[in-house]
Every structure is written in structure tokens, then in C-alpha cells.
Amino acid sequence: MVAGERGTRREVRVHLLVGAFCFAAFVGLGLLVRHVPGSLDRLLRDTVATRWQGELGTVAWLVSAALGPILPVLLGVALLVVTVRSRRRGDPRAWVTLRVLVLLGLCRATSWVGKPLFERERPRIYAVFAYPSGHVVSVTSTGVAVVVLCVWLAPAFASLARATALAATLLICGARVALGVHWVTDTVGAVLAVAGVGLLAIPALRLLPAQHRNRSPVRDGVGRAGR
């Protein structure tokens, strides 16, 4: 076994272990707070979320409008179009964009599955269940997909993508709590859910950076196309 293969297997184990931990933490937190909000939840609701009808709420609404469920939809459509076009041209990078599209869908689905599973009420009257936050799941899922895409196809932008994804995730977490439509643990649970599913799915979809080093998108696509 060559050193590269050992490194790849080590990274796979780490991703699976951390991913399983994050997903278990997501489930455990959801079970813990589904009926009774924690002390931090209540504190932030009483000190921040009660101001949602003022200027703070207006800013939070604007952030929520810009950073929300529309992001994974736009990215998903873009990835689908690029995949189809690349496939028609015989571009092997289509296999990368296709796998990133699947990753995006799996991460985004955590909100759709989690909300009816935990049935947590919002801090104020709202039509949809709270845990995990769909907005935070959307932004975090989009960030994960963009970072992975950059690692494979535009490495020079990977660091910028990571920083932007982190900033956007923190921003939407704060906005949803300030708007009074989510407990802070809803946002934490959303990040844990996406991190768990993402870390478990990335090696399964052969999107690890180590797998990128050992097999370029071109060789990977050509090899799959030849099967």
C-alpha cells in the first residue's frame, strides 16, 4: 500500500468518525430541547428576540431574505446545468459537479427530515417547526458544497470560500435568533446536522481532498466514463 492510499484511508476514517459524532450530537441536542428550551435559549429569546419588531428585526429580516433557502436552489440549478452541459461536451469534470450536487441535496435534506421528527415549537407563533433551522441548513449546505467544489475545480479560491461560508453561517444564525423565529439551539443543531451528513457523505462520494490528490477530476471522469 502506498503512502497516498494510507493517507486517504486515514482521512476517510477521520471524516466518518467526526461526521458520526456531529450527527449524533444533532440528534441528541434535538431530543434534549424538543419540549423544553434550555437556559441559553430562554436568555437570548428574552434579551434579543423580543426586539424583532424594531430595527434589529428589520436587519435580521433582510439578512434572512438574502441568505436563505434560495441559495441551495440557485446553486443546485447551476450545478445541474453545468453537469448536463459538461456531460454533453464529454468534460470529465461533470462527475465532480454531479457529486457535489448530490452532496448539496443530502445536506439540505436534514432540515426537511429533522423538523417533523423533532416537532419543536418556535419562540413565537410560526407555521413551521423549529429544529433544525432551515435557513441555517440552507446557508451551511451551500457553503459546504461551494468549498468542496472549489477544492476540486478552483483550489485558489478554496480559502476564500471557507471564510465566506463561515461568515455567512454565523450571520444567518444571529439573524434567525434576532428575528425571534428560532432558538439558538435550532441554529446549532442545523450546523451539526449539515456537518454530520456532509462529513459522512464526502468520502462516500469520493470528494475528499486526499482523493483529489490521488485522482484528478480528469482521470476520475475518464475512468468512470470508460466503464
From TrEMBL:
Q: Does the keyword Transmembrane helix apply?
A: yes
- Per the record, the domain of life is Bacteria
Q: Which InterPro entries match?
A: PAP2/HPO, PAP2/HPO_sf
Name the residues that span the membrane. 12-33, 59-82, 94-114, 134-154, 166-184, 190-209
**Matching SUPFAM superfamilies:** Acid phosphatase/Vanadium-dependent haloperoxidase (SSF48317)
**Name of the molecule in the record:** PAP2 superfamily protein
Domain Phosphatidic acid phosphatase type 2/haloperoxidase, chain residue ranges per copy: 130-201
- What Pfam families does UniProt report for this protein, alphabetically? PAP2
Going by the UniProt record, its keywords in alphabetical order are: Membrane, Transmembrane, Transmembrane helix
